Here is the input.
Amino acid sequence: MKLRAALAMTAAVSLAGCGLNSIPTAEENAKARWADVQNDYQRRADLIPNLVATVKAAGAQEKSILVEVTQARAGAQSTQLSGDDLKDPAKVAAFQRAQGAVTMSLQRLQEAYPELKSQGNYTTLMSQLEGTENRIAIARRDYNQAVQEYNTRIRTFPDAVGAKVFYGAKPMVPFAATTPGADTAPSVNFGNAN
Here is the structure.
């Protein structure tokens, strides 16, 4: 009887050391951080129609950039990524490309309409969008940290044992820059250089 109790205790301690609880906890944390990223992208998508309306109200005649912003927003909203898709690099890359298109179109809008900066509604909306872009960056950083912790946990002993045997765990895909040249700072020219 004492031998059985000792074996049961040894088995319980061994299983506890194999990540039975820590693997799903780390995975759920990464999925929650992903939900934060999606929330901030949704905030940005919600602000864009107001920005477009403000630009239209200001009498902007160049519709191509407005159409581009609207199409990029629609493309980003149609590209969804669930927590279970975070282990598929192709799906993560498609999501990142769609969100990158929104960022690029917003930058082109801001460059094309410098006279709008003096209008209060435009300035307020752009400030909110800039704040949202900062939130997105922070949420992506937090997501990447959670993914790194999860991926490390499923690859290191003793959690790797439980990750493989009980969960069949696969690494999650971190968020990465997809814009060409994102690793170099852009040059700024205000047209006053000789």
